[in-house]
Design brief:
Layout lengths: L1 H21 L7 H5 L2 E2 L6 E4 L21 E3 L12 H13 L5 E6 L6 H21 L7 E7 L10 H7 L1 E6 L3
Parallel strand pairs: 4-5
Antiparallel strand pairs: 1-2, 2-5, 3-6, 4-6
Helix pairs in contact: 3-4
Length: about 180
């Protein structure tokens, strides 16, 4: 009888030890899991050259001041729309003729999807625009891609109109 009680106590102790070993807490953050270089608080993922400050409005170079700087995407897509080609080609020509110029491509997604999925989708959209610019003459060192996912919506709302405006890539030229 006494041997049976010792066996039960040993089995119970092993069970607690096994459960405690399986319930360890991870010390990794989401950014470590993604394998990319993400900002610590913003949830943004970047690639390319770093440290760009953005120019806007009248600060834009004259050659690109009148061009579209926000490019929209279809739901769950990262393909550059045909309607964006002319302006993107003009941006690429400007970058090719001004090697000191640099641009940051900020990829965004609408609120649907998980945070991780939207970060990846924003990055795919930014990379699609980056590839378009580089194929048309821009240098890879001039382009930085950053993804905010759903973190910085252009429009607040939960309908198709606001979602359409939030699925975008914004071009921001760096300060000189």
């Amino acid at each position: 009888m006494r041997a049976l009680n010792v066996t039960k106590v040993a089995a119970l102790a092993l069970t607690f030890a096994w459960v405690a070993g399986c319930s360890s807490t991870s010390t990794q953050t989401d950014s470590a899991d993604m394998g990319g270089s993400m900002g610590s608080d913003s949830g943004a993922m970047t690639s390319g050259s770093a440290g760009m400050g953005g120019l806007s409005g009248s600060e834009l170079p004259a050659e690109v001041a009148n061009l579209q700087t926000v490019f929209y995407f279809d739901f769950d897509q990262s393909t550059v729309r045909g309607e964006s080609f002319a302006d993107l080609e003009a941006h690429a020509r400007y970058l090719a003729s001004n090697p000191q110029a640099a641009v940051r491509l900020e990829g965004h997604a609408d609120e649907r999807g998980t945070r991780e999925y939207n970060i990846a989708l924003g990055e795919r959209r930014g990379n699609a625009v980056a590839r378009f610019l580089m194929v048309n003459g821009a240098n890879a060192g001039q382009v930085e891609v950053i993804s905010y996912g759903e973190e910085k919506p252009a429009v607040m709302g939960h309908g198709s109109d606001s979602w359409a405006q939030n699925r975008r890539v914004e071009l921001k030229y760096a300060g000189r």
